[in-house]
Every structure is written in structure tokens, then in C-alpha cells.
TrEMBL record, chains A, B:
Residues 8-185 form the 3-hydroxyacyl-CoA dehydrogenase NAD binding domain. It comes from the Bacteria. Residues 191-254 form the 3-hydroxyacyl-CoA dehydrogenase C-terminal domain. InterPro entries: 3-OHacyl-CoA_DH_NAD-bd, 3HC_DH_C, 6-PGluconate_DH-like_C_sf, 6PGD_dom2, NAD(P)-bd_dom_sf. Transmembrane segments: none annotated. Gene3D superfamilies: N-(1-d-carboxylethyl)-l-norvaline Dehydrogenase, domain 2 (1.10.1040.10), NAD(P)-binding Rossmann-like Domain (3.40.50.720). The keyword Metal-binding does not apply. Coiled coil: none annotated. Keywords: Oxidoreductase. The lineage of its organism: Bacteria, Pseudomonadati, Pseudomonadota, Alphaproteobacteria, Rhodospirillales. This is 3-hydroxyacyl-CoA dehydrogenase NAD-binding domain-containing protein.
């Protein structure tokens, strides 16, 4: 949907999430302005962009021409008013504090052209609370990405009570045009969809570890080398649908008692998050993946994610 | 570890799991004998093997020569004693009923050479219960695969109380030599590792669906197009380790209160498993993946899983 590409996107907040958004838009030739209240953070983010693109050129993921083009359409701007003056779409990725986001959205509403979409990357707050009472509430939406945004296409989408449905539809169309997969929710719940499901996995994985049923590499292997492979190709419901000859209805019809027993056996309390155990987990993960340090693990992740997106793209998935 | 390849494997039970095991062993040139108490089931399974290999030849995943070799080293045998007479390793994939498996393991113990490994694919039962009191308890192990076994390498491993640790080590070495990833547990828990984690995901996904927070395709998208991509490349603990500059200890140190709040908000009761809702989910999944029927979805899954395993293999993962 190239017709839905915005001419000018402004990113407000240049941390780990904000920097990933640069690549989402710049790879489609969209002019991207990066703002952060800390000018040094803008510089660090533009440095990261150069290094990350250079590594991708070396890996053969990005051509030298595409790299030049992406760098050419991205600029930093320390002045908020100037950063917002010509935006068609604003993606806010500030700290997760309601008062910070409310104040910032008031600025966005005041300083952008009247028809610009104002989207929040919030991973925890209710867009209804962030946008409530703004003159431009009708154009405010939640667009919560996963980390890293340019390699994980799903984006959770929700409007505030006063959001114009057309604005939400337009935000979804813009993100689709940029290769993302907008995921619409009907209402706010704590953690949205993805962080709830992730919390369920983290809770059970840490319970199994803390109770000594298996070590961290073993627990992670059933995810990395089994469950997640099915989920990454056909989703959880897709995997359920392939597990009985007549599909998901037959599957749960047959195994509902086993599932119910197992679900009732899962520990619903949070795990202990024991720091000494977690330290050992981090080292075991690095040893398993053959890397030293978090940065090297992130690069390994991103290389594999890039190839995995290419694989999925060949099969009409994003 | 080709030195650990067994000369002769016997598969007892030729259903969906048993048939996947054929390919695990036959692709390494191991002689595979397939037994099922129902001779017609043996025929259906060998027919499936031919069709599945033919499709893989067409897709370019398997050479015509490799296909011929795999078919050449696989044979059906309706007589249990004859099927077991020369086995070095037996993989049992019978129905999940304790008395069925106990009786079968008594037969396996009686009819196999004394040094053969006797492994159960059980997904629910305790190998300690299955093997208890057998003369050959020392050589009995659980080796629980994921479906399909030849495309998902992780295999959960556990011995009975009387299992010789050397037998468990040998079973792990045999499976590693065949390209699987043995995952050792220290004791029996309901659902082992993988089905517990899967139950946690299914429970939350169905709760979100049944409470109307989003539709099935949206809920599945945060898994298929975000969370599972990270998990499939670096696991859950790996993903946690990349989410803070200083790794997993810092990550959970910082977000423990948010995680605890969210975990306490998850509904711990089983979902309703509403059949009419599930029927709609199955249809939505098929429409999303561009297929009609479960068989076509399974083929799509297996094509993508084959490519995903090739991707992971290039990065030293299985």
C-alpha cells in the first residue's frame, strides 16, 4: 500500500524503541525526524543507525545504495517545535510515566499540523488516559511495537474513547504500508495481548527453573527448538488446528480435560526472580549461543530475525 | 556424532508421532522397522512416508536419491516379536494409557536384545510408572518429542528410578546423532516442560479471545509475528537477556514489579473452550494462511518448519 506512506514522520524519544522505528519508516523512503529531549541521545541513536546499517550491508541484508538512502532521509532535531512542524505521523516512545506522556501529547497536539496522526509506543499505559481531554484526542492512537520494531512486524493498536475511527484506520494503513502488521484490540487490558502472553511464559519458565525441574538451557530448548518454531510459522491457534485430523474444535474437544488439569497445576504466583539464578541464566544463554555480552547476543538475534522475516515474507507473512 | 547412530531402530505405534520418528532415523541411514498392532495402520503410515517424501523432493528439500535411500531402509512388520528381534533402540508411541504402556514395555523388555534402549514417546505419563518392576527397568527412558518430531528437534528426556544413567546418556547420544536436541529433566512433573508452557500460552490466548479483547487473528499475530520470532531464534531467556543493556538480571531487577502485577492479573482458571468460538478460529486461521483444510495447513507448516530448521542449522542451532 505505497499510497498510504506518509511523507514525513517524527519520532519523539530516541531510545531502543525509537531507534527501531527509524528503520521501519526510512526503509520505505519516508523522511524521518528524530527528536529527544536529550540532544546527546539523538547523536547516539544516529550513530547506532549508521553502525547497524553498516553491519547489515556487510551481512548482505541491505544494499549500499539503500543504506545511503536511509541515512539521507533521517535527521535529528533537538527542537521539539521544529521537529513536529511538518509531521504527518508522530510516533512517541517516551518513558512509561502517565504524566510525562500526557504532557508530551499536549505538546504534540499543539505543535503538529491538525491532520497528523499522534501514536504512542506505550507498552503499559491506557491511550484513553494519555489522550483524555486533548483538543486533538480524535487523532490519538496507541501503536505498541515489539522490540526490535523493524524486525518484529506486529504492532498492537487501540484508540482512546474520543479517537476518530478513521484516524485509527489511517494509522493502521500507514503501518501496513511500512511492512508492519497492525493488530487491533477492542479495549485496554493490562499488558495488552503480547505482554500478557509473555508474562505467562516467563512465569512458568522461571517456576520450572526455580523448582529445579530442569536447567535454563533445557527449559529454553523446548521453546527455542520446538514450541516457538510452530508458533513462528502458523501461530498458537494454527498449531492447535493442526493437532487433530478435524482441527482445533476436535483437538480441544478431545483434550479439554487434560488441558484443564494441567492449567490448574500451573503455579499462579509470580516466581522469585532470584538474581543469582538469573545471573547464571544469562551466562548459560551466552555460552549456548556462542557469544559474549548482551550486544553480541542482540546482533545474533537480529541477524536471525532478518533471515526469518525473509523466510516468512516468501510465504506471504509480513 | 555418527558413531552413536544405532544400526536398527524399531518404532512401536505408527500414528502421527510414530511416523515422524521414521524420518528422524531413516534420514541418517538407520534401518527402521515400523510396527503397529493394526496392520492397516502400518500401510497408511508407509503411504504417508512416500507421499511426504515425494512432496519434499518436489519442494527441493530432499534429493531423489535420499528419498530412495530412506524408503529403502524402512519396512513395516506386523509381528511384534519379529519387529523387535534385532533392535538396538525402540521408540514406543502407543496410546497414552498407563496399563497399555506397562503391558507393552513388558513385551519390549522380553522381546528385544538385552542391551537395546527402550524409549517412550509418552507426553503425559511418568516413565517411573511405566517401567517400574520390569527386569529391564535399567534401560527404560522417556524420550518425548514434539509434533512433528522430524522438524522440531527438542526431545524431553527422563529416566525411571531404576534407569541406568549410562542408558539415559546413550539414548541422548543416539538422538543427538540423529539431529535431535535432547532436553534433560531432573524429575517428573505433569506436562513436563513444553506442555506446561504451551498450556500457559493456550490459557491466556483463549481467555483474551473469550473475553473479547481481540479476535483470534489479532491474538495469534502477537505470537506468530512478534513473540515467537524472538523465542525461535534465542529462546525466552535469551530474549529476556537482550531486553536491558546489562542483561537478564538487570531486566527482571527493573521490571519485577510490573511482571508481578501482570502475572497476578492473568486468569488462572481454565478457559471455556467454547466449540462455536473454536470453529470460527479454525476457519480464520485457514483464511489467514491461504489454505483450506487441516492437511493443507500441516503441509504449509512443514514447509516453513523445514526452511526454519535450515536457517537455524546455518547458525549452529540443531
Amino acid at each position: 500500500m505505497p499510497g498510504n506512506l506518509p511523507a514525513h514522520v517524527t519520532l519523539v524519544g530516541a531510545g531502543v524503541i525509537g531507534r527501531g522505528w527509524i528503520r521501519v519508516f526510512a526503509r520505505h523512503g519516508v523522511a524521518v525526524t528524530v527528536h529527544d529531549p536529550d540532544p546527546a541521545q539523538i547523536d547516539r541513536t544516529l550513530d547506532w543507525l549508521e553502525r547497524d546499517l553498516a553491519a547489515d550491508v556487510t551481512a548482505g541484508f541491505v544494499s549500499a545504495e539503500a543504506r545511503t538512502k536511509m541515512l539521507g532521509c533521517t535527521r535529528g532535531e533537538a527542537d521539539l517545535a521544529r521537529a513536529l512542524a511538518v509531521a504527518d505521523y508522530v510516533q512517541e516512545s517516551a518513558p512509561e510515566k502517565l504524566e510525562v506522556k500526557r504532557a508530551l501529547f499536549a505538546d504534540l497536539d499543539r505543535l503538529t499540523p491538525a491532520e497528523a496522526i499522534l501514536a504512542s509506543s506505550t507498552s503499559a499505559l491506557d491511550i484513553g488516559e494519555i489522550a483524555r481531554g486533548l483538543a486533538g484526542e480524535r487523532r490519538c492512537v496507541m501503536a505498541h511495537p515489539f522490540n526490535p520494531p523493524h524486525l518484529l512486524p506486529a504492532v498492537e493498536m487501540l484508540g482512546a474513547a474520543g479517537t476518530d475511527p478513521a484516524a485509527l484506520t489511517k494509522a493502521c494503513a500507514i503501518l501496513s504500508a511500512c511492512g508492519q502488521i497492525p493488530v487491533r484490540m477492542t479495549r485496554y487490558v493490562k499488558g495488552f495481548l503480547g505482554n500478557r502472553i509473555q508474562a505467562a511464559v516467563v512465569r512458568e519458565a522461571l517456576h520450572l527453573l526455580e523448582s529445579g525441574v530442569a536447567d535454563a538451557v533445557a527449559i529454553d530448548a523446548v521453546i527455542r527448538d520446538a514450541l516457538a518454531l510452530r508458533w513462528a510459522t502458523i501461530g498458537n491457534f494454527g498449531a492447535n488446528h493442526t493437532n487433530a485430523d478435524e482441527g482445533i474444535t476436535q483437538y480441544f474437544g478431545r483434550y479439554e480435560p487434560s488441558f484443564a488439569t494441567l492449567m490448574n497445576d500451573l503455579d499462579s504466583a509470580p516466581p522469585r526472580f532470584d538474581p543469582s539464578l538469573l545471573r547464571a541464566v544469562g551466562l548459560a544463554v551466552e555460552a549456548r549461543e556462542g557469544v559474549t555480552g548482551v550486544d553480541a547476543l542482540i546482533r545474533r538475534r537480529d541477524v536471525m530475525l532478518t533471515e526469518l522475516r525473509q523466510l516468512k515474507h516468501r510465504h506471504d507473512q509480513g
